[in-house]
């Protein structure tokens, strides 16, 4: 892992190296800190974190921690309403966990990482979008989900379980809970908020409805 990667692993590396304020970016300071750690532990000095360097850092997690993928919590015959509640239940259970850029669990999330895993909980896999791509620093899961083949509905017709998108270009998303509320991952934590909480961001005119019916 190196500058091309973000998310949970970068968060854990920076935590192990006592780097503060770098917001899960594998920046030059992170590279320098990794090189110094490798030099002091008689490891090849590359500035990149392979499994050997990871083990020496003693993060407490497996090297493949960012491969975590939530399994469906509903059966194949579940109704749309049951799938919606499974998705919202997954996201709601993560309230209070930290925002981690590029994070898709298990110990922290960004906005699209939370929603991607919540979709999995409800039994939806979106072709071409997965947690492996989500950790890439130049990949935008928010934009990919909005551009997906999932049904789009005018914002004025939003209902519980829809995905709301913010920004132009899209930079944020949330799950609509109904009654004007959303659940979202924003710094510092996963939280519930008003759907209008991001008045500084353009609200996309359509919501995505992953569970029509």
Throw out a few tags for this protein.
4-stranded antiparallel β-sheet; 213 residues; alpha+beta
Overview of the structural elements:
This protein folds into 2 domains: 8-65; 69-208, Alpha-Beta Complex (endopeptidase fold (from Nostoc punctiforme)), CATH 3.90.1720.10. It is built from 7 helices and 6 strands; from the N terminus they run αααααααββββββ. With 213 residues, the chain is an alpha+beta fold. The relative contact order is 0.15. The strands form 2 sheets. Strands 2-3-4-5 form a 4-stranded antiparallel beta sheet. Strands 1-6 form a two-stranded antiparallel ribbon.
How would you concisely characterize the structure shown here?
The chain has 213 residues and is of the alpha+beta class. The protein has helices spanning 8-16, 28-40, 51-57, 80-92, 111-121, 131-134, 141-146, and strands at residues 152-154, 163-166, 172-178, 181-185, 190-194, 206-208.
